[in-house]
Design goal:
2 domains; five-stranded mixed β-sheet; 20% helix; copper; electron transport
Length: 166
């Protein structure tokens, strides 16, 4: 009770398989070009190198004579009223607003992740590899983040604080 003309539609099956694939390729090619164009910046205002250690970050302002400092989490006894527990650090990264900033991120020991969610930044810090992220902040303020990799027993105690000033 089957009609052989209905089950034999190889031309139609070929069309509805190839046509969506062609449409996806036509959408993907310009998107990939735009993705790579937006990822690269040629002339940043600042370049900062961030090195992840267990359990602190080292920052190096490479454009300004190699200014290097460590950023440790503040213990609860040293917090001021209004400071955020487990998120406040002794040395903040100070950056200008409305200027392109390039962050070079690496690690010295294990995998880390330099993450500030309110700025939309998350870049892995891998030992032996230098990763790059570029951002331009538009609003001044203090932005908090943490290492978001499971990099050891105290991995959540690697806060990141960026202070953006005009």
């Amino acid at each position: 009770l089957t009609n052989t003309n209905i089950t034999d539609a190889q031309e139609m099956e070929t069309i509805w398989t190839i046509l969506p694939a062609v449409i996806l390729i036509l959408i993907a090619l310009p998107s990939l070009r735009i993705l790579y164009m937006t990822d690269e910046i040629n002339n940043p205002s600042f370049t900062i190198k961030s090195i992840g250690h267990q359990w602190y970050w080292t920052y190096e302002y490479t454009d300004y004579g190699g200014l290097i400092f460590n950023s440790y989490m503040l213990p609860p006894l040293f917090l001021n009223p209004g400071d955020l527990r487990l998120l406040e650090v002794d040395n903040r990264v100070v950056l200008p607003i409305e200027a392109p900033v390039r962050m070079m991120i690496t690690s010295q020991d294990v995998l880390h992740s330099w993450t500030i969610p309110t700025l939309g930044l998350k870049t892995d810090a891998v030992p032996g590899r230098l990763n790059q992220t570029v951002f331009t902040a538009t609003r001044p303020g203090v932005y908090y983040g943490q290492c978001s990799e499971i990099c050891g027993a105290n991995h959540s105690f690697m806060p990141i604080v960026a202070e953006l000033i005009p």
